[in-house]
Amino acid sequence: MKKLLLLAAITLGCVHASAQETLTLNTYKGTDLSKYAGKIMNVSVNRYIFNGWNTISLPFSMTKDEVDATFGTDCSLEKLVGVENDGQKVKLNFQNCKEEGIKANVPYILYYTGETGSIKFSAENVLIVDGVSEVTFTAEGTGETVTMGTAKQQTAAQGLYGILAVDNTDAAFVNVDQSSNGFYATRCFVRLSGGNSKLLSTNHLTGKEEGTTSLKGLVAPGERVDVFNVSGVKVASQITEADINRLQKGAYVVKGKTFLVQ
Question: What CA–CA distances, in Å, run from 193 to 79, 138, 146, 149, 218?
C-alpha cells in the first residue's frame, strides 16, 4: 500500500511539473506553436525593443496592467482601425487601445520610451494561440487595399513594409530593404495592393472618440455600405444609415473612417 501511495504521489508531482512547463518564445526565427496551441502555460519572452515605435504581436493575451509592467506606464499601444485617402496619400489610422491590453496574435504598434535593448518578461498561466492574424481596409477613392499582418516566423521582406528602427519616431511604414533579414517573429508588416510606401502616412487617434467622424454625410440617404469593427472584422453587410444607428453602441469603420454609434 505504501508503494502504491508513493507511486501516486510521484505521478501527481509529474503532473504538477508538467502544468508549470515554461514555453520560451524565439522572437527571431519563430517558434512552432502547433503542439502548444490551446494549452495553458507559462511563457518566457526575450524581445528586442527600440526607443520609439515598434510593431508587436504575441501568441497570448496581456492585460493593460501587464503591458504597463512590461513596457512602462508611458508606453502606447495602437491598432489599425481604418485607412483613408487624403487626396495625396493613403493615411493609416491607428487608434489607442492600451485599455483593452494585447490580444493574442493581433498586430499592434507599440511606443516605447525606455532605452533600446532586449526586454525579458514572462507571463504565467496564459492560453497559447497558434496562427496569424491580419486586418484589411480599402481606401475610398484610390481602391488601395492595406493589410496589416503578423510574422509568426522570420518572414522575407519582399513586397512588405515595416517600421525602420533608424527612423521610427512617427511609426512610418516604409519598404524594407531586400538585403535585410526581413521581419523577425513577433513583428508586424503592412502589405499594399499597389503603389509604394511613399504614398503612406500614419495618423494616431489618441482615444476612443478623438479622431472619429460623424456618420452623417459619410453615408448618403438610401446608400448601403459594409460596416466593420475597429479590429477590421465585418459586422454588417450592405446596410443603411438607419440600420447602422441600431447597432450596439461603440466604434465602427465605414469607408475606412471611424465613427461612433451612441
Answer: 20, 9, 7, 14, 24
